[in-house]
Amino acid sequence: MDKVEKSKIIFQPSGRRGEVKKGVTIIEASRQLGVDIESLCGEKKVCGKCKIRIEEGFFEKYGVQSSKDHAGKWLIEEEKFINRGQREAGYRLGCCARVEGDLLVFVPEESRAGKQVVSKAARDIHIEWNPAVKYYYIELSEPTFKDPKGDLERILDHLNTKYSLSDLDIDYLTLKTIPNRVREGKWKITVAVWMDREIIRVLPGKRENYYGLAVDVGTTTVAAYLCNIATMEVLDTVSMMNPQCKYGEDVMSRITYHMMHEDGLAKMSGDIIEGINSLVTQACEATHPPKKGKKNNGSDKEEDEKMVQDKPYPCLTPSDIIDMTIVGNTAMHHILLKLNPEHMGVAPFPPVVHKSMDIKSRDLGIQINESAYVHILPNEAGFVGADNVGVLIAEEPYKKDEMQLIIDIGTNGELVLGNKEKLISSSCATGPAFEGAQLAFGMRAAPGAIERIKIDPETHDVDYKVIGRNAWRSYSEAKEMEAKGICGSGILDVLGELYRSGVILKSGRFNSKQKNSRFRKNSENNQPEFVIAWANETTIGKDIVITQKDVRQIQLAKGALYCGCKLMMRRMGIDKVEKVKIAGAFGTHVDREKALIMGLFPDCEIDNIISIGNAAGDGARAALLNREKREEANWVSRNVEYIELTVEKDFQQEFMEAMQIPHMKDTFPHLKGIVPDEILNQ
Amino acid sequence: MDKVEKSKIIFQPSGRRGEVKKGVTIIEASRQLGVDIESLCGEKKVCGKCKIRIEEGFFEKYGVQSSKDHAGKWLIEEEKFINRGQREAGYRLGCCARVEGDLLVFVPEESRAGKQVVSKAARDIHIEWNPAVKYYYIELSEPTFKDPKGDLERILDHLNTKYSLSDLDIDYLTLKTIPNRVREGKWKITVAVWMDREIIRVLPGKRENYYGLAVDVGTTTVAAYLCNIATMEVLDTVSMMNPQCKYGEDVMSRITYHMMHEDGLAKMSGDIIEGINSLVTQACEATHPPKKGKKNNGSDKEEDEKMVQDKPYPCLTPSDIIDMTIVGNTAMHHILLKLNPEHMGVAPFPPVVHKSMDIKSRDLGIQINESAYVHILPNEAGFVGADNVGVLIAEEPYKKDEMQLIIDIGTNGELVLGNKEKLISSSCATGPAFEGAQLAFGMRAAPGAIERIKIDPETHDVDYKVIGRNAWRSYSEAKEMEAKGICGSGILDVLGELYRSGVILKSGRFNSKQKNSRFRKNSENNQPEFVIAWANETTIGKDIVITQKDVRQIQLAKGALYCGCKLMMRRMGIDKVEKVKIAGAFGTHVDREKALIMGLFPDCEIDNIISIGNAAGDGARAALLNREKREEANWVSRNVEYIELTVEKDFQQEFMEAMQIPHMKDTFPHLKGIVPDEILNQ
Lengths: 682, 682
Known about the structure:
The structure is a homodimer of 682-residue chains.
Chain A: E1 6-12, E2 17-21, H1 26-32, E3 51-55, E4 57-59, E5 64-66, H2 84-89, E6 91-93, E7 103-106, E8 133-139, H3 151-163, E9 169-170, H4 172-184, E10 188-194, E11 198-204, E12 211-217, E13 221-228, E14 234-241, H5 251-260, H6 264-286, H7 298-310, E15 321-328, H8 330-336, E16 357-360, H9 361-364, E17 373-376, H10 386-395, E18 404-409, E19 413-418, E20 423-428, E21 449-455, E22 462-466, E23 485-486, H11 488-500, E24 519-521, E25 528-533, E26 544-547, H12 548-572, E27 579-583, H13 584-589, H14 592-598, E28 609-613, H15 615-625, H16 627-639, E29 641-642, H17 651-658, H18 677-680
Parallel strand pairs in A: 1-7, 9-11, 12-15, 15-17, 18-27, 20-29, 21-23, 27-28
Antiparallel strand pairs in A: 1-2, 3-6, 3-7, 4-5, 8-10, 10-11, 12-13, 13-14, 16-17, 18-19, 19-20, 21-22, 24-25, 25-26
Helix pairs in contact in A: 10-15, 10-16, 11-14, 12-17, 15-16
C-alpha cells in the first residue's frame, strides 16, 4: 500500500506551517493551513491576484530546504501577471504553482485576503421592543402527593396562569435540562420563550439581561451586532472578511465554484458558518469586563458568573446567545444554508426559497445556544436578497409618502424605488469596480490605497492621498507615499477628475490630443494609460496607472447603476425622486457631488442624498429586537415587485447612454457651477 | 432462461398473501410473506409447533382454488404430531408441507410465533385513517420570467390552492433537497406534510405508499410494527430484548444505575436508541422482496426502486420511514429521552414531563428519515406511563358505559379502572415474578421452560410440560424432558397447584406436615423447597425447585396486583367490574381460571376476562395512523386520575390480605366447583 507523499510548507509572514499532500496547488495548501490568499477569479488563472513568492534556501527554524524547483512547472497563464524579473525573484501564481517538495512561501500584502479593516457600525435607528425571544421569571410550588405533576407541566401551568402563554412547546434539548435547573433554582426559574410558542431555555433564579446577535453576511464582509435583547443596547459590533472570498470575489464566481467542485457548496457553507461562529466568540469575548490587572484565577470565574446576573457587560459564552437574525444577498443566503444556488445563476433565476426561515442553530452548525433558532430573513428574488429586505425594514419606505430611491451597492447593486403606494426593486450588475476589484491597480480600502485624487486641469499633474498617511502627495516626499493601489473612493475620484481635467472624453475614451508626461501607451499591450503615482512613490516598484480598460469597467458599473435607476423610474412613471438613500460601505465613502458629476444615479437635491450606512445590518437588528419586523419583512419581500432590468425595453440603449460621462441629458441642473460649462457642453 | 413457476398462497387469519416459488415449504413461504409461524426445532421436523391447516375450496376474494393436494406429499414425521382426524381436516406441519399449487393456509393460534415473549404481534383493531404524515402529489409549472418565484413558494402555493394547506413550514434538511428533487421529477413531485404544518419530505414523481413504525419500549421487550401508512397494513412486526436489561431487570434498578453512574443515563439511552435503530433496519430488511435467484446486479436496484412505488412489499431503507410513534412506561420514556429519572424514584414521584413530545429523529439519534418527527406518547404519572396511555387509546374505556378494569402486567403492573364517566389509574409493584425473574429457577418463555404443571393432590407427584416438547412428563422418559427452568405460565400454575394439592397453606407457607419425597429442606440454607423436576429430567444437572422465597415473591406480586385492583374499586365506589382486560404477554399466557383461583384480580365472569395482547403497541400504531389518537392520548393522560396506592388508607392491611391464597373473602363465587370445597374452606 502506497503511503501518501507529503511535503512541508511554511507561509510567511503568518508563520503558518504544516504538511500537505504533494501535488496540491499553493492556494489549496493555503486553505488547508488557514492562510488566506486573494483569489478573485476562483482559481481560473485569470485574475493574477494570488501572486506569491517562493523563498529559496535552507530555513533552519523549520528544517526546510525550499526551492523554486519545488513549486512545479511554470504555466503559460502566469506570463500575463508575472514578468521576467519577478519570475526570477521567485514569484508564482498560487493557483498555478504546486507543492512538489518542501517550500517556504511568502504572501505579499496585496495578495493577502482578509486584510481589510472592516467596520460596520450600528446606526441609531428607532426600534420598538418586541423581541422574538422573551424571558419570564416564575416561582413554582414544589410537587406534593396532592400535586405530583411533572416539572414541565408545572412550568407550563404557571406560564399560562401568569403570562397567558398557552400551548407552548419545548425544545427537546431544553427539556433535558429542566429537572436539574428547577431544583438548582429551588423552583424559582427564568424561562426563555420563543415567539410565544416554544420554551428554549430554562435558567435557575432570576435573569433580566439576555443576548442576541444580528448578522449581515455580505459577499465581501460579514458584520455582527451583539445586542442585549432586554435593553436593546448594542454591546459590540464585530466584523470580518467573508472567508468565502478565497473561492471567488463575487457572487457568480462562488456559484461557479459550487458548480465546478462537488464539495464546493459544503466547503463554502462550512467556511461562512465557521466565520459566524468566530464572530460569536469574538463578540462574547469582547464583553468580558477589563481584568484590571487581576490574575486569572478561580475567583475570576465566580466574579464573572455574578456579573452575568446584574452587570450590563457580563461575561458571556456562546450559549448565552439565545437568538440570531441573518441577512444576506440571495446567493450568500443560499450558500450559507447549503441550498443549491446554481439555478439562481440561470434565467429566470429562481431562488430555492423566498420566505424567512427559522432554523435551529444546531441544525445549521451555528454555535450559539443549542436550542436557539436562527432567523434568516426572506429573499425578494434571485438577485434581491434578504440583505435588501433588511434595508427595507430599517428604512420603511413602504410607510412613507415621499418617493425614495434606495441604492445598496456592495459587490452587487440592488435598487428599490417607491413609497407607501408601491415598491419595485431590481438588481444591476455593477460588478465590483466600485470596490476596486478587476482594475489593474484596484485594491480594497486598506493601508496603501489611494483614496483621494485631484488632477490639475491645466498641467494634468496628480495630487493624491493614501490610507494610512494623512498628508497629500504635494506635501510629501515621493518615497513617503508608499502607495499600493487605488480603492473604491479613489476610483470614483479618478473618473470624475479625469473627465473634469479633460484627460478622458465624455465617451470615456482617453483624449488622444492631450500632451503630458502621465498619459502614455503601455509598452507591452500598446493600450493608453494614465499614471496616478510613479513607481518611486509606491511599495510595489511600478507606476500605478488607470488603463482604458479600467475606465471602461468603471463606466460599466456606473452605467449599470444609472440605467437601473432610470428604468425603474420609467416603470414607476416618475421623472424625479424625492430622496436618494445610499446603503453600504460605498454610501459611507461616496462623495455625493462627485457621484452626481459621474452620473451614478438620477439627479436629486444634494441634501436629499443621504447615506444610511449598513442598513441591511440595521434591519437584521430590528428583526432581532422586534418580531413584528419579521412579519413586515415577509410582507415586504412578497410585496416588492421585482423588475428584471435586462428584459426591459430599451435596456441596451439606456445602458449605452448611461455609460457616458457625465450623464447629462439636462437632468442635472444641480451640476451647474460645479462642473465647468465648457465641459458640460463638450 | 427458465421462468420460475409460482403459486399463490394466502395466510389466514393475517390475510397476508403473495406469490412464492413452487416447491418451497410453507414455513419458507410464511417467512417470505412476513407471517410468523412457530418453529422451535428450526425446521428439523421434530417439534410439531408449526402445525397449520390447509383450507379447501375456491376463494373468490383471492381467486384461489386451494386443495390439500397442493401441499405436497405427506411425510412420516408428521404422523407423530397430527392424528388421523386432524390429517383429514387438513392439518400439516409447515416444515413438511410444500407449496405445489395455490393454497389458503390457516395458522392456528398455537402455531403463531407471536405468542412468544419477545414477539408481540399486532392485533386487528379498528383505526380510522388520518395519519400525522400525509403524502400529496403535485404537478408544478416551471419558473419563467413572468413567474420566477422560488422552488419552495411554488410548492407552497400549489399545496395551498389544491389542498388548502396554508402557512406550512419546511424542515431545513428537506429544504436543502428541494432544488434537485423538483428538477429530477420534472416539476412533478410528492410532498410529505406532517400535521398539516411542516413539509418533511419531497420526492420526485408520484409516490403512494409510505411507511411508519410504531414502537413499544417495554422494560424487558421492545416491539415495533412496520406499517404502510397509506394502506394501514402492518408489514412486519419485529422485536427484541430491551438492551438495557444488562443494567437491571426492572425500572427501579435502572433508575438506580443512573444515580450510581455519571454516564448511566447516556449509556442506557444510547443502548435503547441503538436497539430501536436495529429494529428499524430489521423491519426494512424484512420488507425486501425475495431475490428470486437473481444475481445482485445493477438492474436489481432499479427493480427495487420501482417496487417502492407500486408494490405492497417494497424495498425500504430507514430513510423511507417517515413517521414513528413510541410508547413506554414513564421510566423507559425518560431514559430514552435522556430525562433525569431520579426524581421519579422519590415521593411524590414527579416525572419531568407528561405531555406528548414531537422530537426530530435526528435530535434523538433515531435513524429513520432525518426530517421525520418521533412522536412520544404522553405519560399519565410517574408510574403510569405512555404505554398505559397506548393501552387506553387502543381500548377506549372512556367511550364505554361498562365498568372496565384494564390490567397491564409487564415488568411493572399498571391498572386503569373506569368508563366514560371517570377513569382512575394506579401502578402496583408486582415485580417481575410473573415473568419468571427473581425466582430460583425462573426463566423466560423459551425452549426448556416448564410452562404447565399439575400436582396430584393425593401423591403430590408432579406432571409437567416443557416448551419445545409436546408430551407431558408422564408420557415421556426422564431424559427426554430437557427442562431448564420455569416460565411465567408455569409459575402461575405452580402456586395454584401447590395450594390445591395442599403443599402450601393459604398463608403461602409450606405445609410442614406433608410427607412426600419432593418436599424437603435445602441442604445449604435449610429453607423448605419443593421439587418440580428431578435433576435427570433437566439439562442443568440439578433439581428444579420452588423455594419458600419463590412462593413469597409470587405472593407479593399477586398481592400487589389484587390489592391495587381492590383499592381502586373502593375509590371508584364499586364492588364489581363488568370486564377485566389483560394486556401484555402475561395476558396472552394467563390461564384465566387459574388467575381467579390465585386471586390475581377481582372476581369477574370468566367470559368477561379477555386478553388484549400488546394493547400498548396497538395504541402506538393507532397514534401512527390516526393523529386524532394523539390528541385523545393527551386528553386521556390528563383526565385519568392517578391514585398513589401506597398512601391509601388500609394499604398495608389490604396488601397483607391480598397475599393470601386464594383471596376469597366471598368475592369469588365463580370458583365454586373449580376449587375443592375443603380447600376453599381451609
